[in-house]
Write a structure and sequence with these properties.
By secondary structure, the chain is mainly beta. 14% of the residues lie in helices and 45% in strands. The protein has one domain. The longest helix has 10 residues. The protein is globular, with a radius of gyration of 11 Å.
Length: 74
């Protein structure tokens, strides 16, 4: 399943958000994986890095859209 957030502003580098497992989303551009968002309870943890096991936390949010923006901004 691929989710594209309509709330995210369009930019030169559009993002794709894809569900990887039941609680992990991948945040990708057309060419690269920027990071991941891990849903832990009601919190979305934004992780920056192209390999999930080595990705670094860059923030937390109660909103998936906001967590995706954190991954993109880092």
């Amino acid at each position: 399943m691929v989710l594209i957030s309509p709330a995210a502003p369009k930019s030169r580098t559009d993002l794709t958000v894809a569900l990887v497992t039941e609680d992990v989303y991948s945040v990708m551009t057309e060419r690269d994986t920027l990071g991941f968002v891990h849903k832990v309870g009601t919190v979305y943890v934004a992780l920056r890095g192209d390999i999930l096991s080595h990705a670094v936390e860059v923030g937390q949010s109660l909103s998936l859209d906001r967590a995706v923006r954190m991954v993109r901004a880092s």
